[in-house]
Write a structure and sequence with these properties.
single chain; alpha/beta; Conserved hypothetical protein from pyrococcus furiosus pfu- 392566-001, ParB domain; Arc Repressor Mutant, subunit A; 6-stranded mixed sheet; about 50% helix; HTH_ParB/Spo0J; ParB/Sulfiredoxin_sf; DNA binding; ParB/RepB/Spo0J family partition protein; chromosome partition
């Protein structure tokens, strides 16, 4: 809930830890400063700026805003005002680009405000994306797909490595990779994660199935029957075993076919019965039985083995 600021030049205390320390005035103690190795230089303290002078953040990681929740925030702002300033950078004299706080900005417009308190910062494109991403992650406002897309943008557009990205957002490499893997899922499943139809746990289980068609069929069951994460994990393991057994059966069938073909060719070559045995590693033996010395001589002659 937002509440009104009495004096916009006073230090704000409602920002909390983490990003609050990043965005608030420079009087914070060292313990409140997050370990983000980027230069963030303030041009001024908090000001009130015209809402119409603020452009939305082109690097905003959030792609979905709950309109009902936005309207509720607007009603709250009408009554209590805004407790936490937005953060902007000055794009030109009197014009600003939003870095973080788009919900507050949009709700303020709905509430009919003409001005909004804002911290003005200098930031390049990467810093803008990082700051918007970190704020939303720390507030737990982003869904898993939005986080994954933001991570992907930081990696692809700014050539960050996963370890560097982890340092930026305070996550280890495994966590970052788990989010990025969600982007390999079919669009219908990504949309379900985005819209909170299924959890990230459900989605992570589905990732372990290689076939998209099977993923979608299983996803449909998850939604229709309201499966738990444990149930889908068990089902994925069962399917994996079936696939493994099926592949093993196919390999064995292939080996049998190879052996049968080889045995047929050898029998034609030697003009007698030939037995071929082999395992999956192609280890085995070839037996050429004979019933007389003449038959042995004929076999030896066919492979040009001279007898003494």
């Amino acid at each position: 809930m937002e509440s009104k600021i009495g004096n916009p030049k006073k230090s704000m205390t409602g920002l909390g830890r983490g990003l609050g320390a990043l965005l608030s005035d420079s009087g914070n103690t060292p313990s409140e400063t997050p370990t983000i190795p980027r230069r963030l230089e303030a041009i001024s303290s908090m000001h009130e700026v015209l809402i119409e002078s603020v452009e939305t953040n082109p690097y905003q990681p959030r792609t979905h805003f709950d309109q009902e929740a936005l309207q509720e925030l607007a009603e709250s702002i009408k009554v209590l005002g805004i407790i936490q300033p937005i953060t902007v950078k000055e794009s030109s004299p009197g014009k600003y680009t939003l870095i973080s706080g788009e919900r507050r900005l949009q709700a303020s417009k709905l509430a009919g405000l003409t001005k909004i308190p804002a911290y003005i910062r200098t930031a390049d494109d990467q810093q803008m994306l990082e700051m918007a991403l970190i704020e939303n992650i720390q507030r737990e406002n982003l869904n898993a797909i939005e986080i994954a897309l933001s991570y992907h943008r930081l990696l692809s557009e700014f050539q960050l490595k996963q370890e560097e990205l982890g340092d930026r957002v305070g996550k280890n490499r495994t966590t970052v990779n788990n989010y990025l893997r969600l982007l390999k899922l079919p669009d219908v499943i990504q949309a379900a994660v985005r819209d909170n139809e299924i959890s990230m746990g459900h989605a992570r289980a589905l990732i372990n199935i290689d076939n998209h068609e099977t993923q979608i069929k299983l996803f449909s069951k998850v939604v229709e029957e309201n499966w738990s994460v444990r149930k889908i994990e068990d089902e994925v393991r069962r399917l994996a075993l079936l696939i493994q057994e099926d592949n093993k059966g196919k390999r064995q069938t292939s080996i049998k076919q190879e052996i049968s073909s080889l045995q047929f060719r050898l029998q034609g070559y030697f003009g007698t019965k030939v037995l071929v045995k082999a395992d999956e590693k192609h280890k085995g033996e070839i037996k050429i039985p004979f019933s007389s010395k003449d038959e042995l001589d004929r076999i030896l002659n066919s492979i040009k083995v001279n007898q003494e």
